[in-house]
């Protein structure tokens, strides 16, 4: 949940325009047969990023986030009962002037 996050912290999924709680489910009984409750859906897995105001922090920027593991693998098995989150950051050698 994002309510109550300390200042400077961002929920990366919700920081992308168009992303919502509903299109970010990582635990989805309507799609993943490893989830025993067929009606339970939630965004249980989250990634947070702290954007501090420092020279070192200015070197790191968030690029993208994606939900992975949403398809069955070999033999029709799901990799997990949760879908995964894959996030990409860029870390620059030079520090941006802020």
TrEMBL record:
Provide the transmembrane region boundaries: none
Biological process (GO) annotations held by this record are: double-strand break repair
Q: Which cofactors, by name?
A: Mn(2+); Mg(2+)
Sorted UniProt keywords: DNA damage, DNA repair, Hydrolase, Magnesium, Metal-binding, Nuclease, Nucleus
Query: According to its UniProt record, where is this protein located?
Result: Nucleus
CC terms in the record's Gene Ontology section: cytoplasm; nucleus
GO molecular function (one): metal ion binding
Task: Please verify whether the record's keywords include Nucleotide-binding.
Answer: no
The protein's name: Endonuclease/exonuclease/phosphatase domain-containing protein
Tell me what organism the protein belongs to.
Phytophthora rubi
